[in-house]
Amino acid sequence: MKSSTARAIQCSAALAAAGLLLTACGSSGGGSGSGGSAQTASTAAFKGRGPITYAAGKDTTGTVQTVIDRWNKAHPKEKVTFIQLPTDADSQRQQMIQNAETKSDAYTVLATDVVWTSEFAAHQWIEPLPASQFPLGKMLKPVVETGQYRGKLYAVPASSNGGLLFYRTDLLKKAGITQPPTTWAQMTADCAKVKKLPEAKSMSCYAGQFQKYEGLTVNFAEAVNSAGGRIVDANGKPDVDTPQAKKGLDFLVKSFKDGTIPKEAITYQEEDGRQAFQSGKLVFLDNWPYVYSLAQKSAIKGKFAVAPLPGLDGPGASSLGGSNLALSSFAKNKATALDFMKFFTSEESSTYFLKNASLASPYADLYDNASLDKQFPYLPDLKQSITKAVPRPRVVQYGDVTAAIQNEVYPALTGKKSSAQALKDLQSDLRKLTAQ
Amino acid sequence: MADTAIPPRTAAHRPGTTATRRPGRPPASSRPRRRSRATAGTGRLAALLVSPTLLVLTIVVIYPTLMALDESLYGVKGLDPKTGFISATEPFVGLKNYTDIFTQAGDRFWNAFWNTTFFTVVTVSLETMIGVAMALIMHRAFRGRGLVRASILVPWAIPTAISGLLWKWIFNADGIANVLLGHQVLWTADGFSAKVAVVIADVWKTAPFVGLLVLAGLQVIPKEVYEAARLDGASAFQQFRRITLPLVKPALLVAVLFRCLDALRMFDLPYILIGAQKGSVETLSMLAQNEASNVRFGPASAYAVLLFLYVFLIALAFVRLLGADLTGDAGGTGKSGRRRSRVARRRVREVTA
Fold it and tell me: Which InterPro entries match (chain B) (predicted)?
């Protein structure tokens, strides 16, 4: 690291030079950004055509390559190469960061998780995008917001995701319940009725993802948002030490204590919960829509349905999942990249992904399409879930924020800390992390 | 070295050169001069031959270590609240990363430090005992010995990440471990049971490695020694304590040292089996990785440097105190170290004779 300072000087010199040059020619660019010179410069900088790459997690459905092939056929001189990154999100993020830290042009278009936007944008690893060139108005609002940092668009929604309540229709019907619960109190009451049935004696009521990992952050955020609380306010300041947030966390803590949530759920990730639900151990499960098609192939086929997540006084709020497309700041051929991003996130591509990979679309009107609803009966509920969804904190240091949440919520769930103390400590941890 | 290292070619040329090219000179006076010239040449040749190794070592060991040391003196890039962008440069903070580790980040560091030490001490002692037992079994002559040897080595052949996944299923809430116990232990939750799970998985995986090295040591112990002992009426336990253990010690020490160094930088097993952010199994490597993945390379380097020093001290202690003969030529400079390693070498020679 002898060159650290030298490198820094070089960088800032280069940046300054680029800033000067580009502000000089920025006016002709038609960029929508109007902040510092860097932004004006960047939006105007979509230059260069030629081959590019698309870096995303391993494609298990085989659909990504098909869509890329379609693009390549139409644009033989601007071919897109698909770079498959590891399956888990943490490794993908790590590789993208490494790529950015070395200012490598290996990745052009990045498939980013919805929670990475602020971090990537703040580090200027990704370019601000011309919002007017994407049909953002046709997309669901909370989804579009995941791609923004400080009011500017840095990533375009490619797919979305929202939590759903899976429940056993057969058991609820037998217990004389016709409607899925919309509040937590209803859910526990329904559960008590179901548990009186002989076949449900050994079942547990409800589970989500409570292992100490990102899933815990998702489930905690859902509980807090569903009780009318929030983790950070509109300005990004932590606001978690509130009575509403406490009610949300208390629901989880109490459920663990009284057995509504089984003890072992403290080790559940998505798949553990799905397996427990499929093997008839759970009456209710909070999980992503992917469970639907897999559970249809299991022993409980035809015996379950989905509903929006319940909340404290009415339907709850899900955490948003999904992925966006961002443009690496260090890539070449950015004009091609912008066109490819438009193509890849178009309604047409999105329909294809929905039909063939059951990826939730960011486009609102796909959810009201009758023929699609027939194929995917959960779509209306998913739309409601996504429109009412709350994104996880959009902060630059997301990795530290999610770790802080896990570090405080986990001991609360296991009974090592009171929920009040956990929230108080979390508030002060988050205040430090967002103070910069 | 000078006597032995003269290439044979020099010697072969000697009569020819003295006879034809320098007839006037007495052979006696020319010999020392020629030898010294030859030595200089050999020195140069030796330097030339060793230089690629030194170059590679510099590139892959020394340079990265110095880089890490230097990087650990830089802080975290700050966020400009006005623009919302992270600054492009890392500020030079001197030793602040280190002082932070021992003050404000102290709890987490010491927790990771004790976890690392705990895992090293517990797993290596268990592995040594089980490994020696395995080696003794593998050393016996019996039917199907090849099969037993091969099957004992299977865990060692499996990549750690894969065995981490494997044990994750075993330690699942509904996994085999709980079925066998008839009691639900939440192994992968954050707690002491998580530590136990990591120890079990690590011992399962690496005891065969110790077994393998010890087996190699056992195989060079001459049978006559045991025969003589038996004639003298030594019991099986006495034979083990007085013959097997001392004679296998050099091999065992190398195995234990390797295991210690490996266990000190344990990362993938707890990371995959139990997960990140779990205080009960977080090791120093995991701490460094966590810092680096949150784009704080300075503090991450500081952790890595401390871990490096810890590993280095343990290795040094091994070589100095226990006389583990790693270099093969008693490279130690301490008197006791040299004596001990000489003893160890003599043993090896006895054994290999």
Answer: MetI-like, MetI-like_sf
Please give the biggest Cα pair distance in chain B: 97
Does the beta-carbon distance from B184 to A35 stay under 8 Å?
Answer: no
Nearest residue of A to residue B67, measured between CA atoms = A1
Distance of CA B260 to the CA centre of its chain: 6
Cα distance between residue A398 and residue A434, in whole Å: 10
CATH class of A52-161+321-388: alpha beta
- Quick one: what percent of chain B has pLDDT higher than 90? 59
| DSSP secondary structure of A407-432 | HHHHHHHTTSS-HHHHHHHHHHHHHH
DSSP output for B306-342: HHHHHHHHHHHHIIIII----SSS----SHHHHHHHH
Residue B83: which of A361, A151, A11, A386 has the closest Cα? Answer: A151
- Give the Cα separation of A252 and A219 in Å (integer): 9
- Yes or no, beta carbons of B85 and A94 under 8 Å apart: no
Give me the phi and psi of A155, to 5 degrees please. -150, 140
3-state secondary structure at position A38: helix
A29 C-beta neighbours (distance < 10 Å), count: 18
In degrees and rounded to multiples of 5, residue A108 shows phi and psi of -100, -65
Which of A353-362, B80-89, B191-200 is predicted most confidently? B191-200
CA distance B152 to B130: 11
User: B245 in contact with A at a CB cutoff of 8 Å?
Assistant: no
Rounded distance between C-alpha atoms, residue A313 and residue B11, angstroms: 99
CB A118 within 8 A of CB A147: no
Cβ count near B246 (within 10 Å):
12
pLDDT digits (tens, 9 = 90+) for A162-186: 999 999 999 999 999 999 999 999 9
Q: What does the pLDDT look like over A257-270, one tens digit per residue?
A: 999 999 999 999 99
Of A250, A258, A265, nearest to A209 by C-alpha is A265
Chain A residue with Cα closest to B174: A264
Please give the C-alpha separations between residue B142 and each of B70, B131, B138, in angstroms, as whole numbers: 57, 19, 9
- Domain spanning B108-294, CATH architecture: Orthogonal Bundle (1.10)
Cα separation of A217 and A221, whole Å? 6
pLDDT at site A38: 43
pLDDT at B324: 55
The rounded distance, in Å, linking the Cα atoms of A34 and A40 is: 6
**pLDDT for position B33:** 52
Which residue in the set B70, B84, B187 is minimally distant from A122, CB to CB? B84
- Taking the CA of residue A313 and the nearest CA in chain B, the distance in Å comes to 32
Instruction: Classify domain A164-320+393-435 at the CATH topology level.
Output: D-Maltodextrin-Binding Protein; domain 2 (3.40.190)
Cβ(A324)–Cβ(A146) below 8 Å? yes
Whether the domain at A52-161+321-388 and the domain at A164-320+393-435 fall into the same CATH topology: yes
Q: Does B103 touch chain A (CB under 8 A)?
A: no
| Main-chain dihedrals φ then ψ at residue A36, nearest 5 degrees | -70, 175
Q: Give the pLDDT confidence of B75-102 residue by residue, as tens digits.
A: 998 888 888 898 888 899 999 999 999 8
CB atoms within 10 A of CB A423: 25
Residue A110: is its pLDDT beyond 90? yes
Residue ranges per structural domain of chain A? 52-161+321-388, 164-320+393-435
The radius of gyration computed from the CA coordinates of chain B, to the nearest angstrom, equals 28
pLDDT tens-place string over residues A58-108: 988 889 999 999 999 999 999 999 999 998 888 899 999 999 999 999 999
